[in-house]
Amino acid sequence: MATLAARVRENIVLYGALAANVGIAIAKFVAAGISGSSSMLTEGVHSLVDSGNQILLLYGQSKARRAPDAAHPFGYGRELYFWSFVVAILIFAVGAGVSIYEGWKHWREPEPLADPMLNYIVLVIAFALEGTSWFIAMREFAAAKGDTGWWLAIRESKDPPGFMVLFEDSAALAGLVIAAIGVWASHAYADPRIDGLASIAIGVILALVAVLLARESKGLLIGERADPAVVATVRAVVERQRGVTAVNHVRTIHTAPDSIFVAISADFDDSLTMGEGERMIEAIEDQLRAAEPRLSSIYIRPERREDAAALSAEVKA
User: What is the mean pLDDT of residues 116-137?
Assistant: First the structure.
C-alpha cells in the first residue's frame, strides 16, 4: 500500500494531467457537436491526444522499472525515453495534423455557428482544469530544478514526463485562449472562417511544441551524459586515492532518469600489485556509490596516462 502511494505521489503530474484532459476532452466534443465550432473540435482532439500521451508516459515508467536481465544487463530505463519520443510524434502527427486539417476544412467550407455560450462555458471550465494541471506540473518541476534556470533545467533534465506535461499544459492553455478568441471573433465579425484560422493557429503551436519535445527526447534516447556536477564528483573521488596518479577521463551516460553508467580511465601507481589494485578499485566503487547513489554501473579501467592521451588523439583525428 505504501509503495502504491509512493508511485501515485511520484506520478502526481501525470495523473493530474490525465484526469483533467479526459474530462475536458468530453466537454469539448459535446460543445463542438452542438455549436459546430472547428476550434472547439480541434481542442477536443488536442485534449484526447494529451490524455493518450499521459497514458503512454505512465506505461513507459512502468516498463522502465523492470530489473536488469540477461538480455538487458543495464535495465530497461530507456523505455521511458522511447515512449516520450512516441508522445512527441503523436502530438505532431495527430494533434497538430488534425488541428491544421480541420482549420483548413472549416476555412474552405465554413459552417454557421450556433449560440457560442456553451463554448464559452466549456472553455472557462477547461481553462480552470488545465490551469490546475499546469500549476501542479510547474510546482513539481520548479522543486526539481532548484536554482537552475528554467530553460537550462529543461535542456539538462533526464526525466521527460516532468517537462513534457509542463509543455503540453502550456500549449493547452494557449490553445484555449486562441479558441476563445476564434469563437468570439467569428460571431463578432459574422465570419465563421475565423474559427478555422484559430484551429490552424492551435495546430501550429502544437507542431512547435512537438518538435521541441522530440528534440529533447531524441537526445535522451540516443544517450546523454550526466550532469557536470556528477562528473566532477566522480573525478574528485578517484583523484584523492593515494594509489591513483592521474584520472585520464570520466565518461557517463544516463540509462534511466535516476540511473547512470560511468566509465573511468585512471593511471595507477606502477608499484601496486594486482591484488592491491583490485582492492583499491573495489574501495573506489564503494566510495562512488556513497557519493552518488544514481551510479548504477561503474567501470574502472587502469590505463597509463600516455596511452590514454594517445588513444584520445587518434579518436579526435
Answer: 84
